[in-house]
Amino acid sequence: MIVFKYIHDISHYLHSLQQQGKKTGFVPTMGALHQGHISLIESAHTKCDIVISSIFVNPTQFNDPGDFDKYPITIEKDIDMLEKAGCDVLFLPSVKEMYPEGLTDGKQYELGYLELVLDGAYRPGHFQGVCRVVEKLLRIVHPDKMLLGQKDYQQCMVLAKMVETERLKTIIIICPTKREADGLAMSSRNVRLTNAFRAKAPLIYQCLQSIKKEIKPGDISHVKQQAIEKLVAAGFKPDYIEVANAQTLELLHTWDGKTALVALAAVFAGEVRLIDNLVF
Ligand code: PAF
Fold first, then answer.
1. pTM of the full predicted structure?
2. 3-state DSSP call for residue 228?
C-alpha cells in the first residue's frame, strides 16, 4: 500500500493510473477502523481495479469540540488493517493540507430538508462539514465509485445530494451495516463505551427490530414511544427514535402499509452517541 500525505503527490499518482483506464474505488474514513470499514475495502476490490482509502479526522464536521478531542486515533493499527485488506493507496493528509483556507467560513451546501431533520437538527453544521471534506476528497481522488456504510443512512443521502448538485461523476455505493455478534452496529465510537453500556448497547438494534415487527398501517407513534421508553429505562438518553420514508427521509406519524420505511435511532450511551437504522 502506498501512503500519500500531500494532495499534489496522490493526484499525480492516481491521474496516471486513471489515464491507463484503471477503475478506482474510494473508501473515505476517519480512522479507528473496524470490520465495517474493511468490508467496504473488500467490496471495492470486487468492483474496481484500484482501492483507495483516506484517514482524516475532519474537524469541520464535529459540532461538539469535546467529541472531536475524544475521537479515537489508532493510526498504526489502521494502516496494518488496510494493508491486510489489500487497500492499494492510503491518503493521510494533515488539517493544513485539507484546509489551507482555514476551518471557518466554508462553502455552504444546499441540503434542504435533509439538514433540518434527525442528525441535521441534532448536530447543527455536521453535514455541512461532511460535504465540505468529502467534496474536497472527491476532487482530489476522482474515484469512479465511493463506498459508504448504510449505518450512516442520512449521511449517505446527504452525500448523494452533494454529488448530484456539485455534478461530480463518482457513483455512490451503499454497503450493508456490519454488526457485532450481539447485533450492535460496528462503529469507531464503540471502543469508548463503558463495559456497562457496551453490554446494554445491543438494545438499540433490538428496539429497531421491534419497531419493524410491531408496526402496522395507521398511527405509528406508539411503536416509537415504546422504543424510547425501553431505552430510557435501560439508562440511555435517546436524541431520537424515528420512522421515516426510506427514500425521502420524511418523518412519519402514520403508515400507509406500502411505503418503504427506515427506523432510525440516535442514542447517548453515557457520553458516547451511537446511531443505527433498519430499512424495511
Ligand atoms: O463517515 C465518516 O467516517 C465521515 O463522515 C467521512 C465520510 C469519512 C467524512 O469525514
1. 0.97
2. helix
